[in-house]
Amino acid sequence: MFARIEILFINDDFHWSNSVFYGHLSTDKENNLQNGSSMSIKRYGAEQVGAGGKTLPFARAVEAGGWLHVSGQVAMENGEIIGGNIVAQTHKAIGNLLAILKEAGYGVEHVVRVGVWLDDPRDFWSFNRIYQEYFGAHPPARACVQSSMMVDCKVEIDCVAYKPKDA
Fold first, then answer.
1. Nearest 5°: CA angle at 58, between 86 and 60?
2. Beta strand pairing status for 22-24 and 13-16?
3. What is the β-pairing status of strands 111-118 and 141-146?
4. Range 5-24 average pLDDT
5. pLDDT tens-place string over residues 59-81
6. Which pLDDT belongs to residue 9?
7. Phi then psi dihedrals of residue 74, to 5 deg
8. What is the Cα 45 distance to its own chain's centre?
9. Of the candidates 110, 109, 111, 114, which has an alpha carbon nearest to the alpha carbon of residue 127?
10. pLDDT tens across 77-92, in order?
11. 121 with 146: CB under 8 angstroms?
């Protein structure tokens, strides 16, 4: 079986986009991951609860090697999707995303990529206006698609952030 692996290079750091492995390119054998050194992985909120009080089988975020992958956030509060239009749900979803970034010691300036799923493509311009309020000063790379949602929400947002270990 073969797997497609995408690697992103930034200043000699590398990151496999499938979230399996992170590391630093080095010619120093003591620091080379192939020679047995390890890298810690920290999970945030692996015990989170979703709609109906059910435990969700994933972490809110995972950090390794300066990279933070934040799972898709929706307009959820106390385990339930809030009511409201795309504007209200966008504010809440981004607020949830930013709260996770802050908990992990990252800020919006560290976000390098954002993924957005909209339930209705007609919401794009309203969503974009709110998104710019949060990310306008530090615009990351972004993909935005229309998709049916797994829960009754209008928007879902995930991100990848990077902060050098010495920052």
1. 55
2. antiparallel
3. parallel
4. 43
5. 889 999 999 999 999 999 988 89
6. 42
7. -120, 180
8. 13
9. 114
10. 988 899 999 999 999 9
11. yes
CB atoms within 10 A of CB 106: 23
Q: Decide: pTM greater than 0.85.
A: no
Please give the C-alpha separations between residue 105 and each of 11, 12, 23, 164, in angstroms, as whole numbers: 21, 23, 20, 12
Closest listed residue to residue 116, CA positions, set 94, 83, 87: 94
- Extract the tokens encoding 22: 């992170």
Q: Quick one: which H or E segment has residue 145?
A: strand 141-146
The chain-wide mean pLDDT, for the chain, equals: 80
Burial class for 126, CB neighbours closer than 10 Å (0-12, 13-18, 19+): middle
pLDDT at 137: 94
31 three-state secondary structure: helix
**What φ, ψ does residue 49 adopt, rounded to 5°?**
-115, 135
